[in-house]
């Protein structure tokens, strides 16, 4: 038995964490995984989470997720992206289920896609979060790519993106990042989202949004949902994977939501039953604690306000670190233009560093990031930013 089983390929993101953990240098910096850290480099438990936990303590929630807890989570999650007054919510024109964070929601949707559109493919931006490729591949949905990022401008390759959307066969499935694109930190402008949405209408494409970082781009939940609201206004049926890992700091709790907008309530009932049918065979139901916690925070006005404030604090700290790093490189006399550090948004900076330079940062300076040059800005702090700037300058000066 098992002699034929070789080692699986290393995950490009998780392997960075492993390498970082095994480094004993006191100077080491982890800019790998997208997980928020405070200015002392420590993981954060938000006060709204502590207060929410106190509120649910002792409520006897050890049974698996009940229908009422589940629908509360789904309804509050959907309001968060589309706004609380969206008509389709009142009309019950959506199917939603709680999911194992964003990854679980994507995986469920990929499975659903294969079952009901077995010939379809998924169009993924180049680049995208590396796990998107794995998720749709494992669900046996062939992947295709579309242009997104321009390495020269370190911004959006809008013309090529529009061409690819136009040239894809009508009624294709596209995965879009509504804000804080991972790994590039490059988002379309509002105007560009409107053009994309219009073209999707013409082509009858299906937009599937992976909303993993709501609040991290602008610090404001509504602003970060603008793209989705444009698509909603334009009358699209939309799929969305939502994660509360980053914006509530609940990484290990695996709380998320998958929602699919439908033409009418009857369709919604059928689709929800199919999604439940898929989860039942995969893992029956997710752990209840995190779901209860998130639905409690989202439905308690005081906790929700507190959450919004704390989210802003996280987003602002990352923003400050972007400017500080850029300024530090300038002061060091870097011959390169680092404006993209502050033009890009969200948790990541797609630095433009080459794999060789990334390797040197790791070997010579104990600074860890993925080989595509993506830096998780959450790992940058007031006390390590000048060490980091010096190191980047060392490996990039001619
Ligand atoms: C990341 O891109 O670093 C995060 O989404 C964490 C993960 O699971 O990859």
TrEMBL record:
Record InterPro entries: Aminotransferase_I/II_large, Asp_trans, NHTrfase_class1_PyrdxlP-BS, PyrdxlP-dep_Trfase, PyrdxlP-dep_Trfase_major, PyrdxlP-dep_Trfase_small
Its EC number(s): 2.6.1.1
CDD domains: AAT_like
Cellular component GO terms, alphabetical: mitochondrion
SUPFAM superfamilies: PLP-dependent transferases
The entry's keywords: Aminotransferase, Pyridoxal phosphate, Transferase
Pfam annotation, one family: Aminotran_1_2
Reaction(s) catalysed by this chain's protein: L-aspartate + 2-oxoglutarate = oxaloacetate + L-glutamate
Co-factor(s): pyridoxal 5'-phosphate
Gene Ontology molecular function terms on file: L-aspartate:2-oxoglutarate aminotransferase activity; pyridoxal phosphate binding
GO biological process: amino acid metabolic process
Further facts: In eukaryotes there are cytoplasmic, mitochondrial and chloroplastic isozymes.
Family recorded in the similarity comment: Belongs to the class-I pyridoxal-phosphate-dependent aminotransferase family.
Assembly and interaction partners: Homodimer.
Protein name per its UniProtKB record: Aspartate aminotransferase
Originating species: Vitis rotundifolia (Muscadine grape)
Taxonomy of the source species: Eukaryota, Viridiplantae, Streptophyta, Embryophyta, Tracheophyta
């Amino acid at each position: 038995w098992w002699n034929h089983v070789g080692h699986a390929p290393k995950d490009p993101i998780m392997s960075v964490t492993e390498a970082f953990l095994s480094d004993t240098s006191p100077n080491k910096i982890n800019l790998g995984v997208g997980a928020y850290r405070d200015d002392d480099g420590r993981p954060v438990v938000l006060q709204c989470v502590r207060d929410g936990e106190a509120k649910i303590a002792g409520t006897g929630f050890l049974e698996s997720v009940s229908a009422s807890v589940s629908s509360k989570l789904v309804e509050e999650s959907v309001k968060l992206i589309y706004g609380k007054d969206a008509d389709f919510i009142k009309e019950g024109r959506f199917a939603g289920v709680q999911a194992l964070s964003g990854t679980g929601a994507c995986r469920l949707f990929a499975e659903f896609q294969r079952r009901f559109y077995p010939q379809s493919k998924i169009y993924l931006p180049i680049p995208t979060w590396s796990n998107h490729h794995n998720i749709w591949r494992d669900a046996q949905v062939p992947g295709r790519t579309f242009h997104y990022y321009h390495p020269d401008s370190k911004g959006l390759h809008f013309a090529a993106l529009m061409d690819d959307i136009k040239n894809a066969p009508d009624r294709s499935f596209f995965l879009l990042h509504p804000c804080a694109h991972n790994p590039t930190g490059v988002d379309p402008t509002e105007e560009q989202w409107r053009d994309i949405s219009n073209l999707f209408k013409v082509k009858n494409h299906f937009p599937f949004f992976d909303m993993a970082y709501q609040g991290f781009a602008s610090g404001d939940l509504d602003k970060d949902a603008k793209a989705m609201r444009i698509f909603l206004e334009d009358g699209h049926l939309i799929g969305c994977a939502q994660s509360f890992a980053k914006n509530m700091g609940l990484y290990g709790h695996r709380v998320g939501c998958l929602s699919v907008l439908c033409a009418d309530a009857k369709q919604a009932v059928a689709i929800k039953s199919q999604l439940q049918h898929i989860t039942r065979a995969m893992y029956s139901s997710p752990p209840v604690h995190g779901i209860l916690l998130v639905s409690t925070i989202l439905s308690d006005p005081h906790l929700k306000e507190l959450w919004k404030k704390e989210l802003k604090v996280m987003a602002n700290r990352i923003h400050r670190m972007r400017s500080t790093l850029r300024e530090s490189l300038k002061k060091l006399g870097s011959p390169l233009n680092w404006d993209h550090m502050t033009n890009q948004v969200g948790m990541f900076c797609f630095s433009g560093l080459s794999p060789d330079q990334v390797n040197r940062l790791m070997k010579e300076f104990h600074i860890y990031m993925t080989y595509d040059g993506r830096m998780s800005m959450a790992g940058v702090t007031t006390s390590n930013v000048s060490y980091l700037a010096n190191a980047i300058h060392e490996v990039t000066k001619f």
